[in-house]
Amino acid sequence: MSTWIFDRRLISFLVLPLLAGCLAVPDVARRDAGVLRKPPETVAVANRAVVIGGPPGYCVDRSASRIGGARPFVLLGSCASIAGARSAPAPRSPALLTAAVTDGGPGLVRSLDSLEGFFRSEAGRRALSRVGIADSVQVLETAVEDGAIFLRLSDRSEVAGRAVGPEYWRAVLPLNGRIVALSALSLVDRPLTATQKRRALDAFVDRMRRENPTI
Fold it and tell me: How would you label 184-199 residue by residue, b for 16+ Cβ within 10 Å and e otherwise?
Protein backbone atom coordinates (compact mmCIF):
# COMPACT_ATOMS: atom_id res chain seq x y z
CA MET A 1 0.00 0.00 0.00
CA SER A 2 1.44 3.36 -1.00
CA THR A 3 1.61 6.14 1.57
CA TRP A 4 1.93 9.86 1.20
CA ILE A 5 2.08 13.01 3.25
CA PHE A 6 -1.16 13.78 5.05
CA ASP A 7 -2.59 14.55 8.48
CA ARG A 8 -5.60 16.21 10.10
CA ARG A 9 -4.17 19.71 9.63
CA LEU A 10 -4.63 19.10 5.90
CA ILE A 11 -8.06 17.48 6.20
CA SER A 12 -9.70 20.75 7.25
CA PHE A 13 -8.15 22.42 4.21
CA LEU A 14 -9.26 19.73 1.81
CA VAL A 15 -12.89 19.55 2.86
CA LEU A 16 -13.89 23.05 3.91
CA PRO A 17 -13.17 24.93 0.66
CA LEU A 18 -15.46 22.60 -1.28
CA LEU A 19 -18.19 25.13 -1.97
CA ALA A 20 -16.35 28.37 -1.24
CA GLY A 21 -16.59 29.46 -4.84
CA CYS A 22 -19.09 27.26 -6.61
CA LEU A 23 -22.15 28.48 -4.69
CA ALA A 24 -21.52 31.87 -6.27
CA VAL A 25 -20.94 30.63 -9.81
CA PRO A 26 -22.87 32.94 -12.14
CA ASP A 27 -24.77 32.16 -15.31
CA VAL A 28 -23.84 35.43 -17.03
CA ALA A 29 -21.01 36.02 -19.46
CA ARG A 30 -17.76 37.73 -18.48
CA ARG A 31 -17.80 40.91 -20.55
CA ASP A 32 -15.53 43.94 -20.54
CA ALA A 33 -16.70 46.96 -22.56
CA GLY A 34 -18.93 44.65 -24.58
CA VAL A 35 -16.10 42.26 -25.52
CA LEU A 36 -16.58 38.60 -24.69
CA ARG A 37 -13.66 37.15 -22.76
CA LYS A 38 -12.50 33.62 -23.48
CA PRO A 39 -12.10 31.74 -20.17
CA PRO A 40 -8.83 29.84 -19.69
CA GLU A 41 -8.76 26.05 -19.84
CA THR A 42 -5.91 25.76 -17.31
CA VAL A 43 -4.32 27.78 -14.53
CA ALA A 44 -1.05 27.30 -12.58
CA VAL A 45 -1.28 27.56 -8.78
CA ALA A 46 0.91 26.94 -5.72
CA ASN A 47 3.87 28.89 -7.13
CA ARG A 48 3.22 27.21 -10.48
CA ALA A 49 3.87 23.79 -8.95
CA VAL A 50 0.43 22.46 -9.93
CA VAL A 51 -1.52 23.08 -13.12
CA ILE A 52 -5.31 22.86 -12.80
CA GLY A 53 -7.20 21.73 -15.87
CA GLY A 54 -10.41 19.85 -16.49
CA PRO A 55 -11.73 17.45 -19.12
CA PRO A 56 -12.62 18.71 -22.63
CA GLY A 57 -15.27 21.42 -22.55
CA TYR A 58 -14.35 22.71 -19.08
CA CYS A 59 -12.79 26.11 -18.34
CA VAL A 60 -11.57 27.92 -15.25
CA ASP A 61 -13.98 30.38 -13.65
CA ARG A 62 -11.42 32.86 -12.30
CA SER A 63 -14.03 35.10 -10.67
CA ALA A 64 -15.19 32.21 -8.46
CA SER A 65 -11.67 30.89 -7.74
CA ARG A 66 -8.81 31.77 -5.41
CA ILE A 67 -5.77 31.47 -7.65
CA GLY A 68 -3.09 32.90 -5.37
CA GLY A 69 -2.02 32.17 -1.83
CA ALA A 70 -0.91 29.03 -0.06
CA ARG A 71 -4.29 27.30 -0.39
CA PRO A 72 -5.68 27.92 -3.87
CA PHE A 73 -9.21 26.90 -4.80
CA VAL A 74 -10.28 26.62 -8.44
CA LEU A 75 -13.77 26.22 -9.90
CA LEU A 76 -14.25 24.82 -13.39
CA GLY A 77 -17.45 24.70 -15.39
CA SER A 78 -18.71 24.50 -18.93
CA CYS A 79 -16.70 26.85 -21.16
CA ALA A 80 -19.94 27.83 -22.91
CA SER A 81 -21.63 28.71 -19.62
CA ILE A 82 -18.69 30.70 -18.26
CA ALA A 83 -18.17 32.56 -21.52
CA GLY A 84 -21.88 33.04 -22.10
CA ALA A 85 -21.47 31.79 -25.66
CA ARG A 86 -23.19 28.71 -27.05
CA SER A 87 -20.43 28.40 -29.64
CA ALA A 88 -17.83 27.76 -26.92
CA PRO A 89 -16.93 24.17 -25.97
CA ALA A 90 -19.11 22.36 -23.46
CA PRO A 91 -19.25 18.84 -22.02
CA ARG A 92 -22.33 16.80 -22.87
CA SER A 93 -23.37 16.56 -19.21
CA PRO A 94 -21.63 19.46 -17.45
CA ALA A 95 -20.73 19.13 -13.79
CA LEU A 96 -19.24 21.67 -11.43
CA LEU A 97 -15.61 20.75 -10.79
CA THR A 98 -13.50 22.08 -7.93
CA ALA A 99 -9.83 21.71 -7.07
CA ALA A 100 -8.12 22.59 -3.80
CA VAL A 101 -4.34 22.39 -3.33
CA THR A 102 -2.02 22.51 -0.33
CA ASP A 103 1.57 21.64 0.57
CA GLY A 104 2.16 18.13 1.88
CA GLY A 105 4.47 19.01 4.73
CA PRO A 106 7.40 16.71 5.62
CA GLY A 107 6.90 13.87 8.06
CA LEU A 108 3.10 13.79 7.96
CA VAL A 109 2.70 10.34 6.44
CA ARG A 110 -0.66 8.59 6.50
CA SER A 111 -1.81 5.67 4.41
CA LEU A 112 -4.75 5.97 2.09
CA ASP A 113 -6.46 3.13 3.94
CA SER A 114 -6.32 4.95 7.27
CA LEU A 115 -7.53 8.14 5.61
CA GLU A 116 -10.45 6.18 4.15
CA GLY A 117 -11.31 4.98 7.65
CA PHE A 118 -11.06 8.50 9.05
CA PHE A 119 -13.60 9.88 6.60
CA ARG A 120 -16.10 7.24 7.74
CA SER A 121 -15.69 8.24 11.39
CA GLU A 122 -17.74 10.90 13.16
CA ALA A 123 -14.77 13.28 13.15
CA GLY A 124 -14.25 12.69 9.45
CA ARG A 125 -17.91 13.26 8.58
CA ARG A 126 -17.86 16.44 10.67
CA ALA A 127 -14.84 17.63 8.67
CA LEU A 128 -16.62 16.79 5.41
CA SER A 129 -19.81 18.63 6.40
CA ARG A 130 -20.46 22.03 4.85
CA VAL A 131 -21.66 23.23 8.27
CA GLY A 132 -19.42 21.12 10.53
CA ILE A 133 -22.17 18.70 11.65
CA ALA A 134 -21.35 15.00 11.28
CA ASP A 135 -24.98 13.90 11.02
CA SER A 136 -25.47 16.01 7.89
CA VAL A 137 -23.06 13.82 5.92
CA GLN A 138 -23.31 10.26 4.68
CA VAL A 139 -20.29 8.50 3.23
CA LEU A 140 -22.00 6.42 0.56
CA GLU A 141 -18.98 4.82 -1.03
CA THR A 142 -15.19 4.86 -0.74
CA ALA A 143 -12.47 3.33 -2.86
CA VAL A 144 -8.69 3.48 -3.02
CA GLU A 145 -7.62 3.32 -6.65
CA ASP A 146 -4.27 3.97 -8.30
CA GLY A 147 -2.83 6.12 -5.52
CA ALA A 148 -5.99 8.15 -4.86
CA ILE A 149 -8.98 7.89 -2.56
CA PHE A 150 -12.45 8.36 -4.05
CA LEU A 151 -15.49 9.22 -1.92
CA ARG A 152 -19.17 9.43 -2.86
CA LEU A 153 -20.79 11.71 -0.30
CA SER A 154 -24.18 13.14 0.52
CA ASP A 155 -24.38 16.41 2.45
CA ARG A 156 -27.91 17.65 3.15
CA SER A 157 -26.92 20.70 5.18
CA GLU A 158 -28.31 24.02 4.00
CA VAL A 159 -25.96 26.79 2.90
CA ALA A 160 -26.48 30.23 1.43
CA GLY A 161 -26.07 30.77 -2.29
CA ARG A 162 -26.98 28.69 -5.31
CA ALA A 163 -28.27 25.24 -4.51
CA VAL A 164 -26.01 22.31 -5.31
CA GLY A 165 -27.14 18.72 -5.19
CA PRO A 166 -26.43 16.96 -1.89
CA GLU A 167 -24.58 14.06 -3.50
CA TYR A 168 -21.14 14.50 -5.02
CA TRP A 169 -17.89 12.69 -5.74
CA ARG A 170 -14.48 13.67 -4.38
CA ALA A 171 -10.94 12.42 -5.01
CA VAL A 172 -7.85 13.14 -2.91
CA LEU A 173 -4.40 12.47 -4.38
CA PRO A 174 -0.80 13.70 -4.31
CA LEU A 175 0.60 15.68 -7.25
CA ASN A 176 4.06 17.24 -7.47
CA GLY A 177 4.58 17.23 -3.71
CA ARG A 178 1.16 18.75 -3.01
CA ILE A 179 -2.11 17.28 -1.82
CA VAL A 180 -4.95 17.91 -4.28
CA ALA A 181 -8.67 17.48 -3.59
CA LEU A 182 -10.91 17.29 -6.66
CA SER A 183 -14.72 17.26 -6.62
CA ALA A 184 -17.55 16.80 -9.09
CA LEU A 185 -20.95 18.29 -8.17
CA SER A 186 -24.11 19.39 -9.93
CA LEU A 187 -26.61 22.19 -9.43
CA VAL A 188 -30.09 21.27 -8.19
CA ASP A 189 -31.64 22.74 -11.32
CA ARG A 190 -29.18 20.84 -13.54
CA PRO A 191 -28.96 17.42 -11.83
CA LEU A 192 -26.55 14.69 -12.83
CA THR A 193 -26.55 11.05 -11.82
CA ALA A 194 -23.89 9.65 -9.50
CA THR A 195 -22.43 7.80 -12.48
CA GLN A 196 -22.19 10.99 -14.54
CA LYS A 197 -20.44 12.79 -11.70
CA ARG A 198 -18.02 9.90 -11.18
CA ARG A 199 -17.19 9.89 -14.90
CA ALA A 200 -16.55 13.61 -14.77
CA LEU A 201 -14.32 13.16 -11.72
CA ASP A 202 -12.37 10.31 -13.33
CA ALA A 203 -11.76 12.46 -16.41
CA PHE A 204 -10.73 15.33 -14.12
CA VAL A 205 -8.22 13.14 -12.30
CA ASP A 206 -6.82 11.89 -15.62
CA ARG A 207 -6.38 15.44 -16.94
CA MET A 208 -4.70 16.56 -13.72
CA ARG A 209 -2.22 13.72 -13.91
CA ARG A 210 -1.42 14.56 -17.53
CA GLU A 211 -0.89 18.21 -16.65
CA ASN A 212 1.26 17.30 -13.63
CA PRO A 213 3.52 14.38 -14.57
CA THR A 214 5.70 12.96 -11.83
CA ILE A 215 9.11 14.63 -11.90
Answer: bbbbeeeebebebbbb
Across the strands, what pairs with 4?
Answer: 110
Q: What is the pTM assigned to this prediction? A: 0.84
Adjacent-strand bridge partners of 53 = 42
Query: What CA–CA distance (Å, rounded) separates 71 from 141?
Result: 27
Q: What is the largest CA-CA distance in the chain?
A: 55
Per-residue pLDDT of the chain (215 residues; tens, 9 = 90+): 444 444 555 555 555 455 443 444 444 444 443 445 789 999 999 999 999 999 999 999 998 899 988 889 999 999 998 988 888 888 988 999 999 998 764 433 456 777 788 888 998 888 888 788 899 999 999 999 988 999 999 998 876 556 789 999 999 888 988 889 999 999 888 899 999 999 999 999 999 999 999 75
Distance CA 77, CA 22 (A): 9
CA 65 – CA 100 distance, rounded (Å): 10
120 touches 14 (CB < 8 A): no
